[in-house]
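Input sequence (141 aa), recorded before submission:
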Amino acid sequence: MWPSRGVAEFAYCPRLFYYTAVEGVFIPSADTEQGAGVHKRVDRNEDEASVPETDDALGLAEIAGTTASPAEPPLLLPSPQPWPTDHAQIGPQVLALEEGGYIVPQAWPYYAAEKLRLRVIVDEELRKFAMAALAADVLAG
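Predicted structure, token format:
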């Protein structure tokens, strides 16, 4: 089983995903080094109200009762709209949370470089996109 971030990485570049996930070849760039530092700070300062990662496929989520919102932080954002690859990561998180019985009306990716949190509405289009991304990932693997 691939973590939802793997689906996003595959959607971004199937060839790069193959090299990193299958061949184990990873050459860090300035962006990935910056992102690693951001994730360390987020992990160290995680608010007690947030739910810790319980499953690699779920990532982080904010949960209140039976309502959950994925809140996985992508690294960089060049525009005020989430990247399609961010939807490829959020979508499987939504599907997994819904399968677990949660109601998921929205997701909140956080873009550290801009200190910006964007709202992604969970709708049928996002679910279909997630299923297509998962199907492409499964067929390629």
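Checked by second reader. The first strand starts at residue 61 and ends at 64.
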